[in-house]
Design goal:
- This protein is α/β, with parallel strands linked by helices.
- It has one domain: Aldolase class I (TIM Barrel).
- The protein is about 45% helix and about 10% strand.
- The protein is built from 13 helices and 8 strands.
- It has an 8-stranded parallel β-sheet with strand order 7-6-5-4-3-2-1-8.
- Helix 2 crosses helix 11, helix 3 packs antiparallel against helix 13 and helix 10 runs parallel beside helix 11.
- The chain starts with about 30 loop residues before the first helix and ends in a 12-residue tail after the last helix.
- The model has no long low-confidence stretch (mean pLDDT about 95).
- The structure holds glyceraldehyde-3-phosphate.
- The site of glyceraldehyde-3-phosphate has 12 residues, from strand 8.
- The site of glyceraldehyde-3-phosphate (G3H) has 12 residues, from strand 8.
- It catalyses: 2-deoxy-D-ribose 5-phosphate = D-glyceraldehyde 3-phosphate + acetaldehyde.
- One of its GO terms (cellular component) is cytoplasm.
- Its EC number is 4.1.2.4.
């Protein structure tokens, strides 16, 4: 090892809390229709984010460890196997080489959750036994959300019964595109009820919603209907998580908190694969919502390949050397 180093985390003073669930509220159409989004102002602000002076050295290592704790380590492929899911779960338990974590003073670090299709829930639950890492299941006809409504609800029940503690539902994009906010609200309400004790993340599939105004309104309606998290994308749209969309969704979360006192979580997902991008997202959360939203109960990355790059950066931080990326094939 080149240097004896610790990861310096500026937010360790925060209590490890678990946010109460979002109970939701009645649909307030005046509020929803009063929401607008100034695209050029949002894009200007978003363009400044990646160029900001980044945190360095031990602080950067701490932020990268924080990012790991917020990853929903994901595999959502047609060729998923039990073996791949078991390997992913082993990675979730031990996301970075033990000697590197020890050097950083971060022993015991895990990812925030493991995210899989329904058929893989029992395998993931078994593989994570004793770890307290939740299994998240994508549900409701993921990714398009176009299967019959009763089947989508039944899928949630089945995943919860199989042991998923978090359910990532997909909304019907057509309700947004047609401005049918009541239908979106009713759908989200029904999905939340089906989740029971499991936390529910509402995937908006923002790349298919047409406008930032639609993203803002859909975010608000899903929160009114009781979503515990709002999530950008399935990872399967042609445009997934972006910074402008994130700004819009994060500000909707802030408005909802200011008006109701309820904190809703945020999950950007799809195409986030670089350690540097994870730092940009964390800085954005801190700027717009404050330190409380840097905890895994209120912030997650949906990512299948981000962990590998973070691990390479941490290895470099500790040893002074980069390993080849193929050595970090999972995560
Ligand atoms: O919800 C998570 C996404 O499907 C992951 O997307 P990604 O494979 O682009 O990281």
């Amino acid at each position: 090892m080149a240097t004896k180093t610790k990861a310096k985390d500026d937010t360790t003073h925060l209590p490890q809390t678990f946010e109460p669930r979002n109970p939701g509220m009645a649909l307030d159409l005046d509020w929803v229709l009063g929401v607008h989004a100034n695209r050029s102002a949002i894009e200007r602000r978003a363009a400044t984010l990646p160029g900001r002076r980044s945190v360095k050295k031990d602080h950067q290592a701490a932020w990268l460890c924080r990012a790991i704790s917020c990853i929903d380590l994901t595999t959502l492929s047609g060729d998923d196997t039990e073996g791949r899911v078991r390997r992913l779960c082993a990675k979730a338990r031990q996301p970075v080489r033990a000697d590197i974590l020890q050097e950083l003073g971060m022993e015991g670090l895990t990812t925030g959750a493991v995210c899989v299709y329904h058929d893989m829930v029992p395998t993931a639950v078994r593989a994570l036994e004793g770890s307290n890492i939740p299994v998240a299941a994508v549900s409701t006809g993921f990714p398009a959300g176009l299967s019959p409504f009763n089947l989508r609800v039944a899928e949630i029940h089945a995943s919860v019964e199989a042991g998923a503690r978090e359910i990532d539902i997909v909304i019907s994009r057509r309700h947004v595109l047609q401005g049918n906010w009541q239908a979106l609200y009713d759908e989200m309400r029904a999905f939340r009820a089906a989740c029971g004790e499991a936390h529910v993340k509402a995937i908006l599939a923002t790349g298919e919603l047409g406008t930032l105004k639609n993203v803002a309104r859909a975010s608000l309606v899903c929160m009114m209907a009781g979503a515990d998290f709002i999530k950008t994308s399935t990872g399967k749209e042609s445009v997934n998580a972006t910074l402008p969309v994130s700004l819009v969704m994060i500000r909707a979360i802030r408005d909802y908190h200011q008006r109701t006192g309820v904190r809703v979580g945020y999950k950007p997902a799809g195409g986030i694969s670089k350690a540097k991008d994870s730092l940009t997202y964390l800085a954005l959360m801190k700027d717009e919502l404050g330190d409380r939203w840097l905890q895994p109960d209120l912030f997650r990355f949906g990512a299948s390949s981000l962990l590998g790059d973070i691990e390479r950066q941490l290895e470099h931080h500790v040893t002074g050397r980069y390993s080849a990326s193929h050595r970090h094939a999972i995560g």
